[in-house]
Design goal:
Length: 195
Amino acid sequence: MLFNLFLYLIANKIHFIDKNNFLSIKKYLLSIILKKLILVRHAKSSWSHDVIDHQRPLKKRGLNDSDIVSRSLKTLNYKVEKLISSDAIRTKTTAEIFISNLDIDRNLVHFNHNLYDFSGENLIKVIKSIDDALNCVMVFGHNHAITAFVNTYGSKNIYNVPTCGVVIIEFNTDKWSSLEPGKTLKTLFPKDLKA
């Protein structure tokens, strides 16, 4: 961590520490200590296709909501270090739109069948198994799992995370495996972003 701080000071040409530099150093240190989780429930899916649940595609509304929400999320400037998504078609399609609009490197993307989970048990296991070197991770999943997780581990009670809803939670830990309730920083829901 000290080496990272040293590199930060050099990169930002900080030769002495005043109040402004101190605040930027503090912000930087918090960004490498705290864990941020960006949870996304898949967008609105279609029931009009004769396919198994895992293969259901998005509705047109789901495609539009994914575009609107991901563009809004982009303005928050989070640096996603890993994206993990359920491998269900509706979730993968939602994630693909976010990947494109957020310019996420495809090497950071992993589709995981264990996130095709509705109870939340596997969602918790996947999150707690994230590499501790990663500080900002985006996870795409399904309800009831997403809503249960944000109400267990976030600081804001949300009755139901809507389709294509985003909830960002910050955890005061350096280990994903020892996750305890954190602070809900932000929610982005499609209905709130539509004019």
